[in-house]
Write a sequence for this structure.
């Protein structure tokens, strides 16, 4: 299952390639000149594929009629509605659909910078594409001797989610995590601090980007990155609290969340309902379909305990790990986000944006142990787009086809999480056999 290594040894007369242990982010500046070093042919091919696929995603968003349709309503209606509150200096008050950390308000407000020339939706999509391009460029120059598997993985993998990534702000959050990890690959303390700052900013935007720091090497790198993350997050939180009211209002709605139909728990309930063992139904709550009925609350608490167990396992791994490579921070970030994803009560399709981005970062290193995980995530992404929006009505009503799609998607995610945890532990904790 490991992708073949296409790297050719240089001819004797050719100049030596750049060191594989040195990141492009260690240089004094990160410019387009760095991109040229990967070769004009591969760079042009990647650019053409990016343009073609993104035009296709834009076309799907423009029609927005695939499956149940209305994928873009999140931006057109909900985000635009929230933007009005931010313009008045407040976070959405008493709005059960506002489930995001305060830094998410910056993403919702950002289209206002372009609104003198574009409508809100158009401005949001433009900024999303810019974040997508930043991820692509960062991955492409992660190893200046070649275009990495990671760059191609991201460019070709994201369209598997159809037009959904353009209508959610997860690409922006993923960009913060991806660039943070790429900076942490460098040796310069300034790169570590900037990487930590981006992770801290990402934590206030979507929480999970904080996990980009879980695998930083012990010692100076960890101190630099974690301190920068904490200072950035605290400073931004203070600024938002100073200029906007109700900045922490999102916390009130978190405990009331139930089991969403796309989660592993939702799949278990759907199978129970299909077998006649569970009499519950699916209803719209907090802007998404959740199951209501007996045992839902108990199952929700069980998944919370599983999330706690996943966190404790990650802490144990951090304490027990003895071997670090340049790929360890990347691999650890993907494993951590996968573990917290499969134990979540909510596994929305856009979660796959995060996982594809982190898998792409792992593939920028030849020493990664996450190649099988990356392969598992590609069909999981394709099945996610089938589940929403193509077959969402089937998923909600629990038809055999809807059940099969969700069981396959969640089975792949569960397998990916198990493989990621096993391979991370074996690579960093298990003693090497003599």
């Amino acid at each position: 299952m490991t992708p073949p290594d296409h790297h050719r040894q240089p001819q004797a007369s050719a100049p030596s390639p750049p060191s594989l242990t040195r990141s492009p982010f260690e240089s004094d500046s990160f410019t387009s000149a760095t991109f040229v070093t990967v070769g004009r042919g591969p760079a042009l091919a990647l650019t053409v594929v990016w343009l073609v696929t993104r035009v296709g995603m834009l076309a799907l968003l423009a029609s927005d009629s695939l499956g149940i349709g209305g994928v873009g309503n999140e931006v057109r209606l909900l985000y635009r509605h929230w933007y009005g509150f931010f313009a008045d200096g407040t976070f959405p008050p008493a709005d059960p659909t506002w489930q995001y950390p305060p830094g998410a308000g910056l993403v919702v407000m950002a289209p206002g910078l372009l609104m003198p020339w574009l409508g809100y939706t158009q401005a949001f999509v433009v900024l999303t594409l810019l974040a997508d391009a930043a991820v692509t460029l960062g991955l492409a120059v992660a190893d200046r001797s070649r275009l990495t598997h990671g760059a191609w993985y991201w460019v070709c993998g994201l369209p598997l989610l159809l037009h959904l990534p353009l209508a959610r702000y997860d690409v922006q959050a993923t960009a913060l995590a991806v660039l943070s990890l790429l900076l942490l690959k460098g040796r310069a303390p300034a790169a570590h601090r900037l990487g930590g700052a981006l992770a801290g900013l990402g934590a206030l935007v979507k929480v999970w980007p904080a996990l980009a720091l879980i695998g930083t090497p012990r010692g100076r790198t960890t101190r630099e990155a974690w301190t920068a993350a904490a200072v950035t997050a605290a400073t931004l939180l203070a600024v938002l609290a100073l200029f906007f009211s109700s900045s922490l209002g999102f916390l009130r709605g978190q405990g009331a969340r139930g089991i969403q139909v796309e989660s592993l728990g939702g799949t278990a309930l759907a199978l129970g309902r299909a077998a006649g063992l569970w009499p519950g139904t699916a209803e719209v709550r907090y802007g998404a379909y959740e199951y209501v009925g007996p045992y839902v609350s108990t199952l929700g608490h069980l998944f919370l305990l599983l999330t706690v167990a996943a966190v404790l396992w990650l802490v144990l791994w951090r304490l027990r790990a003895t071997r670090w490579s340049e790929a360890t921070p990347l691999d650890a970030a993907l494993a951590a986000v996968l573990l917290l994803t499969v134990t979540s009560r909510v596994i929305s399709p856009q979660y796959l944006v995060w996982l594809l981005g982190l898998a792409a970062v792992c593939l920028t290193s030849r020493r990664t142990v996450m190649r099988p995980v990356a392969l598992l995530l590609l069909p999981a992404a394709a099945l996610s787009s089938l589940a929403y929006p193509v077959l969402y009505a089937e998923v909600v009503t629990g038809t055999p086809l809807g059940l099969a799609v969700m069981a396959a998607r969640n089975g792949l995610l569960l397998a990916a999480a198990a493989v990621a945890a096993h391979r991370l532990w074996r690579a960093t904790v298990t003693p090497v056999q003599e």
Summary: The radius of gyration is 22 Å. The longest helix spans residues 400-428. Residues 1-37 have pLDDT under 50 and may be disordered.
